[in-house]
Amino acid sequence: xxxxxxxxxxxxxxxxxxxxxxxxxxxxxxxxxxxxxxxxxxxxxxxxxxxxxxxxxxxxxxxxxxxxxxxxxxxxxxxxxxxxxxxxxxxxxxxxxxxxxxxxxxxxxxxxxxxxxxxxxxxxxxxxxxxxxxxxxxxxxxxxxxxxxxxxxxxxxxxxxxxxxxxxxxxxxxxxxxxxxxxxxxxxxxxxxxxxxxxxxxxxxxxxxxxxxxxxxxxxxxxxxxxxxxxxxxxxxxxxxxxxxxxxxxxxxxxxxxxxxxxxxxxxxxxxxxxxxxxxxxxxxxxxx
Length: 289
Prior knowledge:
Elements (H helix, E strand, L loop, with lengths): L1 E4 L7 H17 L3 E4 L6 H9 L2 E4 L9 E4 L6 H9 L3 E4 L3 H15 L3 E5 L5 H10 L4 E3 L5 H4 L4 E6 L5 H12 L4 E4 L5 H14 L4 E5 L5 H11 L5 E4 L15 E6 L5 H14 L7 E4 L1
Parallel strand pairs: 1-12, 1-13, 2-3, 2-4, 4-5, 6-7, 6-8, 8-9, 10-11, 10-12
Helix pairs in contact: 4-5, 8-9
């Protein structure tokens, strides 16, 4: 059984930066260190941080005179204001690409555009961007019904950093049908696009695909969806223990990719587990493509 591991699987630049900041902060302060929500969407990493004294809270009101790490997804200006009011020190681990989307949202608002955000309105990153876009922002993933909402308006489009280019293009096409003007500021992270394209290529060339990452991770879920467009046997798993040996009966080639919040050690454990599954089969061939 041949195992093909995506070259760009796992932590992206923004997540690596956020995790390093979190562990460094734990060493520097030792106690009273918190994140607003999980710093990334990976429960295993969040657990390791908790063991180092970095605990996730749901509201800034739960912390006073402590150290609050802003997670990679970012927060609204109002949340930052509340954190400061409670006498906390802020460590900003917001992904630089999310920061760019926030800046663009402010820019479009100041220029008088009707802002459209391509993304999931329930996702924390999108919520943070909405905070910079102000009232009246439209959030959509598919663009359905957008043409009527933006008729004769001056429209500015940005997107959640982990959105697919396909969704962005759908919203652009719908907006162009009726808007007076359309300004597009591309805020999709290049690493996200590369990871998605790479996963799609591998899925076309294997018998089974493992997509590794938190089930509440938007970019991992999207990777799984992209792979399922090419292949029936796609399994979204978080850890090696979820692997079922029966999946691999008659399988000759296995592809592995992972979301931006998945650490290397989890990917390595999965490769090791596949080796055990394949122990009685021909010797594994492992390569990176």
